[in-house]
């Protein structure tokens, strides 16, 4: 514990992007609160530790977006903390029953290509590419939009979406992680290029605090180097848990963060 003074985190109803940890983000878009890939369990998926502790999980989102079944993106312990009135979107299949069993009434299994109206948001679902099936989301309200990429690689469908529907803010992975020597997520240069093709004015790196748990077999097959911010342009932010980033249409800069003790 530390007695060091902590700056206050911005109120969670503030419009913009609040980084909670890993791929868990709290985004307030035109008054609608969106929680992405809620996660609290550590080690995530039994394999991943995190270099920086996550912020407390906000528990009353209007909409929850889940990209895929890996434990650092689909975490029943985190979902169990959320208000059951939240609408949960996740890839169609068995995950839906697991969330409904927690008491959520409105759980929507989505498929790539879907377009939904949810709580005033227009949401496009697009196919990702990862070591398991994944979807990504473009979310728009009142003409303002962001794209959330979970931990995907590039796909033709994401490229087509970027060409057809720009997004001023993109939240993208960009790392050199490998499993058995094979990539499962886009590298920094790909993320920068995709952000440009979306016409983004601001990009935020997601899914970048993890390390491999200290188990010899994991360390043998799974490599997760930390991000190098020098690889990213100044408009591509590497947030720490607690950072708040205003939307690009409202300034776009990192305006505050809480101190994170390690
Ligand atoms: Zn994953």
User: What is the number of E strands?
Assistant: 20
CATH topology: Metallo-beta-lactamase, Chain A
The name of the CATH superfamily reads: Ribonuclease Z/Hydroxyacylglutathione hydrolase-like
What general form does the structure show?
A: globular
Low-confidence stretches: 258-262
Q: Secondary-structure element sequence? A: EEEEEHEHEEEEEHEEEHEEHEEEE
- Overall number of domains: 1
Bound ligand species: zinc ion
Strands of the widest sheet, in order across it, are 7-6-5-3-2-1-19-20
Euclidean distance between termini CA atoms = 10 Å
What does the model show?
This protein has 262 residues and is an alpha/beta fold. The chain has a single domain (16-247), classed as Metallo-beta-lactamase, Chain A (4-Layer Sandwich), CATH 3.60.15.10. Helix content is 14%, strand content 30%. It has 5 helices and 20 strands. The strands form 4 sheets. It has an 8-stranded mixed beta sheet with strand order 7-6-5-3-2-1-19-20, with helices on one face. A 7-stranded mixed beta sheet has the order 8-9-10-11-12-15-18. A hairpin with a 2-residue loop joins strand 2 and strand 3 (32-36). The longest helix is centred in the C-terminal third of the chain and has 10 residues, at 188-197. The radius of gyration is 17 Å and the shape is globular. Zinc ion is lined by residues 68, 70, 73, 130, 151.
């Amino acid at each position: 514990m530390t007695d060091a003074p902590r700056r206050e985190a911005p109120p969670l109803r503030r419009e913009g992007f609040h980084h909670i940890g890993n791929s868990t983000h709290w985004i307030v878009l035109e008054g609608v609160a969106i929680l992405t890939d809620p996660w609290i369990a550590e080690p995530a998926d039994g394999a991943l530790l995190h270099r920086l502790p996550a912020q407390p999980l906000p528990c009353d989102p209007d909409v929850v977006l889940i990209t895929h079944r890996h434990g650092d993106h689909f975490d029943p312990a985190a979902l169990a903390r959320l208000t059951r009135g939240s609408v949960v979107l996740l890839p169609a299949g068995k995950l839906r029953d697991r969330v409904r069993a927690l008491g959520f009434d409105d759980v929507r299994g989505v498929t790539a290509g879907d377009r939904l109206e949810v709580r005033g948001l227009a949401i496009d679902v697009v196919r990702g590419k990862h070591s398991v099936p994944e979807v990504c989301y473009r979310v728009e309200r009142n003409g303002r939009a962001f794209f959330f990429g979970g931990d995907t690689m590039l796909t033709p469908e994401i490229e087509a979406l970027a060409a057809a529907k720009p997004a001023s803010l993109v939240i993208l992975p960009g790392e050199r992680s490998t499993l058995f020597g094979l990539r499962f997520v886009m590298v920094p240069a790909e993320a920068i290029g995709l952000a440009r093709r979306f016409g983004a004015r601001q990009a935020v790196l997601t899914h970048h605090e993890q390390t491999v748990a200290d188990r010899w077999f994991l360390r043998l097959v799974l490599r997760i180097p930390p991000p190098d911010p020098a690889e990213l342009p100044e408009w591509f932010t590497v947030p720490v848990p607690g950072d708040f980033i205003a939307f690009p249409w409202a300034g776009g800069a990192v305006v505050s963060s809480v101190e994170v003790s390690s």
